[in-house]
Write a structure and sequence with these properties.
Blueprint (H helix, E strand, L loop, with lengths): L4 E4 L7 H17 L5 E6 L6 H17 L1 E2 L6 E6 L10 E5 L3 H9 L6 E5 L14 E2 L2
């Protein structure tokens, strides 16, 4: 069984360039592995969509709620809250603004995910979790 890969960005808050790098990393991982069907963005609530709105606009965020294709990606991408996400095998998970506690919970609750990429909401928000992850900056 392949190990899950873990990445994080040291950027925090709303940084459009960093969000774009996180999305690019997810697509890069998708292209490295077979069987990736979903890229899933997870925020605290569905109202915490500012990271996605900055990239895709309001209409794009609405499309992600039902599933949409990102440019250069064959996987379907979705936007979930931490309460609505249900893990599936081979997911690539991007957490948006979640802290250590939430990222650990999603990581541990998604044993068959291929990757988790964490984008912290605040500086030092994922200090414990990122000890086992690689920086994409």
């Amino acid at each position: 069984m392949e190990q899950k890969v873990r990445f994080y960005t040291s950027s925090f808050g709303i940084d459009n360039y960093a969000v774009s790098r996180v999305i690019d990393k997810a697509i890069q991982i998708e292209q490295q592995f077979n069987g990736i069907n979903r890229i899933v963005f997870i925020a605290h609530t569905l109202d915490n969509d500012v990271w996605l709105e900055s990239q895709f606009g309001r209409l794009g965020v609405k499309k992600l709620l039902k599933g949409a294709k990102l440019p250069n990606s064959n996987a379907t991408s979705y936007f979930h809250s931490k309460g609505t996400y249900r893990p599936r095998p081979n997911d690539i998970i991007i957490t948006l603004g979640l802290d250590d506690k939430d990222v650990f919970k999603i990581d541990n609750g998604s044993p068959s995910a291929k990757a988790i990429i964490a984008y912290p909401g605040i500086e030092n928000g994922i200090n414990k979790w990122k000890c086992n992850a690689n920086n994409i900056d």
